[in-house]
Design goal:
Blueprint (H helix, E strand, L loop, with lengths): L21 E2 L21 H7 L10 E6 L6 H10 L12 E10 L2 E10 L6 H5 L7 E7 L3 H15 L8 E7 L6 H18 L2 E4 L8 H46 L1
């Protein structure tokens, strides 16, 4: 009689780490030469130090908005990352679609709220209401249609009008890279690289059909937004400490004057 192995029950506390959404280091840019954001190979030392303190920081979900012409692939790249699926017959987004993706970054929970906005002009007034308080703007264009790259600047300008207090992280993302020949791909990347530098965006080329660089793009977005959130917390703590030191100094001088 063959020896039968008894399957051990899985502990309820055991968790499987999703390599797509578990980040231990800062993912690199698509091209280090084409990014206005961090070019370091890891998270800033002060970020790591802050996260190792006993007091665990809490983070609000990061709002990410996708803008660009109709049918450039905004919905496709979001679905490829969130559900690992691709459909060639997506219906045009009506108004706004929403996806939520959770990450574990350096042992801390961090969420991306992804707002996929309609690309038709008639929906701009609706989509505009969702532009506010964006931490990341993903400006999307179709690499097989040069006109959509020209439109990208207008879409970004519109989104920035709703985010004037602080400039969000900006990414210029070319989709449908699989539709181009090698020569066409290289030519479009040169044009897009110049456009990215002009609008101060980090450039990426992706393909939702093949999955090319889609996961890496979202990992980069989450990591940079997370690092920015930690640095903002550090800035707030520094400001609070300075304010407390000033108040302590004033009180000390006041008591000194009384006893003199």
């Amino acid at each position: 009689m063959p020896h039968l192995l008894r399957q051990l029950p899985v502990s309820p506390t055991a968790t499987m780490h999703d390599t797509r959404t578990t980040l231990r280091n800062l993912p690199p840019a698509y091209s280090p030469a084409q990014t206005p954001h961090s070019r370091e190979k890891d998270f800033a030392p002060q970020v790591r130090y802050h996260l190792e303190l006993p007091r665990k920081p809490k983070f609000r979900p990061c709002k990410v908005i996708f803008v660009g012409d109709c049918s450039v692939g905004k919905t496709a790249i979001a679905n490829r990352f969130c559900y690992d699926k691709f459909q060639s017959n997506y219906k045009a987004t009506i108004g706004v679609d929403f996806e939520l993706e959770n990450f574990n970054i350096l042992g801390h929970n961090y969420s991306l709220e992804m707002w996929d906005t309609a690309g038709q002009e008639r929906f701009k007034c609706i989509a505009g209401a969702y532009y506010r308080n964006a931490r990341v703007i993903v400006v999307t264009y179709d690499m097989s249609r040069r006109d959509t790259l020209d439109s990208a600047k207008k879409w970004l300008a519109s989104a920035l009008n709703y985010n004037t207090s602080q400039r969000p992280l900006v990414f210029l993302v070319g989709t449908k890279a699989d539709l181009l020949t090698k020569e066409e791909f290289m030519r479009m990347e040169r044009l897009a690289g110049n456009a990215a530098a002009e609008i101060q965006a980090e450039y990426w080329s992706v393909s939702a059909r093949s999955g090319f660089k889609v996961t890496e793009l979202f990992q980069r977005i989450a990591a940079l937004a997370f690092e920015e959130a930690v640095k903002q917390q550090l800035g707030s703590l520094k400001g609070t400490t300075q304010e407390q030191a000033t108040l302590a100094s004033v009180k000390s001088q006041t008591f000194g004057n009384i006893f003199h």
